[in-house]
Amino acid sequence: MASLQFCSECNNLLYPKADPHRRIMVFACRICQYEEASESKCVYRNDLLTVTKEQVGVTTDLGSDPTLACFLSIDGEIYLNMTSRLTRM
């Protein structure tokens, strides 16, 4: 995983930069022009597998939601009218 790196001379942040002559990525300081070769080619990693997905299912507090329309049927059961979109993949 990519981490922040700091200049060994002035302790400022090192920024990734391409070196066209050596064709490698280096970390360079914007203050004192210090450069060091990158050990890893990873600058940023976006891990999508750890993002929690929204779970569609029965919600326990729908009966107390005042914004949902409520219908009382003949048999005494209460039905909530909720519209939602279903996407198929």
Automatic annotation (TrEMBL):
GO molecular function: metal ion binding
Gene3D superfamilies the UniProt entry points to: 2.20.25.10
Zinc in keyword set: yes
InterPro entries, per the entry: DNA-dir_RNA_pol-M_15_CS (IPR019761), Zn_ribbon_RPB9 (IPR001529)
Database matches in SUPFAM superfamilies: Zinc beta-ribbon (SSF57783)
SMART domains in the cross-refs: RPOL9
Cross-referenced PROSITE patterns: RNA_POL_M_15KD
Keyword Secreted: no
Keywords: DNA-directed RNA polymerase, Metal-binding, Transcription, Zinc
Family that this chain belongs to: Belongs to the archaeal RpoM/eukaryotic RPA12/RPB9/RPC11 RNA polymerase family.
Ranges where the DNA-directed RNA polymerase II subunit RPB9-like zinc ribbon domain occurs: 5-58
GO CC annotation terms, alphabetical: DNA-directed RNA polymerase complex
Protein name per Swiss-Prot or TrEMBL: DNA-directed RNA polymerase II 15.1 kDa polypeptide
Pfam families reported in the protein's UniProt record: Zn_ribbon_RPB9 (PF02150)
Gene Ontology BP term (one): DNA-templated transcription
